[in-house]
Amino acid sequence: MVESRKGVIFVYMQSLSVVIVCKNEAAIIGQTLQSLQGLSDDIIVYDNGSTDDTMEIARSFPVRVYEGAWEGFGQTKNTAIGLAKYDWILSLDADEAIDDELKNTLLASSFTDDSMVYEINFKNFFGDKWLKHGEWGNDKHIRLFNRKKVSWNKVPVHEVLVFPDGISVGKLKGSILHYTATDPEKYKSKLFKYAELNAKKYFEQGKKAGPLKKYAAAFFSLMQNYIFRAGFLDGKAGYQCAKMSAGYTFLKYSKLSELNSTDHRNKKQATPE
What we know:
The chain has 273 residues and is of the alpha/beta class. It has helices at residues 29-35, 54-59, 73-81, 100-108, 184-204, 213-228, 235-270; strands spanning 2-5, 8-11, 17-22, 43-47, 64-67, 88-93, 96-98, 116-126, 129-130, 139-146, 151-152, 161-162, 168-181. It has two domains: 2-181, Spore Coat Polysaccharide Biosynthesis Protein SpsA, Chain A; 184-268. 38% of the residues lie in helices and 26% in strands. The strands form three sheets. Strands 3, 4, 5, 6, 7, 8, 9, 10 and 13 form a nine-stranded mixed β-sheet that branches. It has a two-stranded antiparallel ribbon with strand order 1-2. Strands 11-12 form a two-stranded antiparallel ribbon. The model has no long low-confidence stretch (mean pLDDT 91).
């Protein structure tokens, strides 16, 4: 919070906890933690088995570092949130820094109504380029909430926050700077992992994917993000982003089709003639 007394401005840390779940993010975790300095006296890094220097870098900052097992995206975040000192939670990924405008907004705000959650604008970067169009343009997510009322669902991938009735959504000035693809090859590998997890989730939900679904869905993804959402205005980076999203979509439905086929064969073999 910011307070002025007799012309002197005093800046106090905010009574909220910042919670970061990570694994092998040595290349970016320092930048994220640096952006948070002066915001809160309770920054938690919850590591899930890093084999690089992630934890060493984190421990060089005034943060609390924990190690814990991976329980899927939603449940792992809930476990980490349970370690927080405060009920108000700013939930970030290791590759998400905050800009000065957002930090100042958070410091100047008073969070007293636990029936509120707060949406924050995202600036998504592909390498050093801020993508203003396509899939990553005009992006925003709810990342500030009170854990007494709100938690993550327990799905293994693409987790979302679960709200009770009566929750209102506010907006905060400033942005989260999302450096998700500083290494395109690493990002592609991450996308393929997500595709497999999402295919498994769809399969468990009883969804089907015919032989043409993967082609149609991938083509639509490319057209939607590169043409209809004007990803082409971001140049080469916009095309690369749209292409990788289409590849993710193709792999997701390919894996789902494989799971459907395997399940069908197993059921057929188990049925007596």
